[in-house]
Write a structure and sequence with these properties.
With about 500 residues, the chain is α/β, with parallel strands linked by helices. The chain has two domains: about 15-150 and about 350-495, 3-Layer(bba) Sandwich (FAD/NAD(P)-binding domain), CATH 3.50.50; about 160-225 and about 230-345, FAD/NAD(P)-binding domain. About 30% of the residues lie in helices and about 20% in strands. It has helices at about 25-35, 55-60, 90-105, 190-200, 225-235, 235-260, 265-280, 280-285, 305-310, 365-370, 405-425, 435-450, 450-455, 475-485, and strands at about 15-20, 45, 110, 115-120, 125-130, 135-145, 165-170, 185, 205-210, 215-220, 300, 315, 320-325, 330, 335-340, 340-345, 360, 390, 430, 490-495. Helix 1 (about 25-35) runs parallel beside helix 11 (about 405-425), helix 5 (about 225-235) packs across helix 6 and helix 11 (about 405-425) packs parallel to helix 14 (about 475-485). It is globular and about 75 Å long. About 45% of the residues are buried.
Amino acid sequence: MSPQPEHAQGARTGRDVRIVVIGAGLSGIGAAVRLRQEGFHDLLVLEKAQELGGTWRDNTYPGCACDVPSALYCYSFAPNPGWSRTFAHRREIHDYLRATAGRFGVAEALRCGVEVLRARWDGTGGRWRLETTGGPYSAAVLVLATGPWHRPLWPDVPGLESFAGPVVHTARWDHSVDLTGRRVAVVGSGASAVQVVPAIQERAAAVHLFQRTAQWLLPKPDFPTSRAFSWCLRRAPAAQRALRAVQYGVQEGFGYAFRHPALVRPLQGAARVHLRLAVPDRRLRRALTPDYRLGCKRLLTSSDYYPALARPHVHLHPTALAAVEKDRLTGADGTRAEADVLVLATGFRMGELPLASGVHGADGRTLHETWGDGPQAYLGTSVAGFPNLFLLLGPNLLSGASSAVTVVEAQLAYLAGALARLRRGGHVSFDVRPAVQASYNAAVQRALRTTVYNSGGCSSYYLRSGGRNTFCWPWSTGRLTRRLSRFEPGDYTWSGGP
């Protein structure tokens, strides 16, 4: 979707608007649609890339797909009965986002190729002042929809820059690099590695996987959707809602087990059976068996990862990559391998909001400075000292089982309620009370102590270096949706107006 002229419908000057949404991925598109439905047409979406799509635009590596069932990975206001598989691939999701944006007229508000560099709250004017690559913008309300899966994490490995061949990160895949008949080394064993290794091993002459930590893996019931089934879903919306409810119930079942770690044992048993059936070699099975509880790290599912690792030309190195020297790779245990192409499946800088160092609040401090030992917000959405600012997919809202779409829509209901109250009361700004935010976050951290996320015996991106969990929601998704459905004005201080 190309950039639009700056005289969008409803905008006063094209740069001075009521609401600016930063980011045109899943959450940003959802925000634009929901807010316009609520009557907020004086709105812009600023996207630094040349088209919308977020993580589904950026991640084009072979095998990239969603690990949440397709029926749950679409907006409630734009259900999609036409998914081709139980778990949609990235191209299909990207197409869905583009189609949804087109259907709901998001193009009228979208500005592609505009990167926000800094945002500063102007208390005198009651507005956010934005510096961008396309010049200044301002807004009464700022919505950060930049998402947690955005900035690739590059490993700090001595000699990495000396590698003789191409170095490709899964989040920035280079399709000009041909893997056919070449020796490929893959670094990482998380979600992207589980998808990319099976997809590339058939072309490569050899694949060397450097696995720092073994992962629990459950089989992935990923099947093509028949035309007859899709036809039924289109003709019978109730059937589509029922399918969504069933898949939601399954995901919530995982979440319940993660909140009650004793219930994880049957899932671990199923994962062990899955591993035993797929990998005959006892030594390889031992290297692939984690030493922590399932759910402590992000839950992974795949039915082709283990069979790929069992292939004779695929070699597992159960160690971290410690050094690179031209085409020679050395593991922390002394293991050596030679490769022509290096694939970094090392994920993202989770917990690091891309704009945290450039968003200045009421006292001039940035989000990064305010957060100190890790991000926190009230209901993962509002941050004390940052009036009229909203985070989408903010701290402590996701888990190992919830759908990001469900969380975003719950937040958008809260955002719509907040803005309706702001408009109805004639106020200029509102800011969450520090005591309310502190009390809420203390309750979240207490509830997380007994979950598998905190007590499962592993290190993960859920936890900061001090042990504080800044990622996970400790209760059910239903509780999150109910809590965010009610905007409580008393939780905030209000400025200006009557």
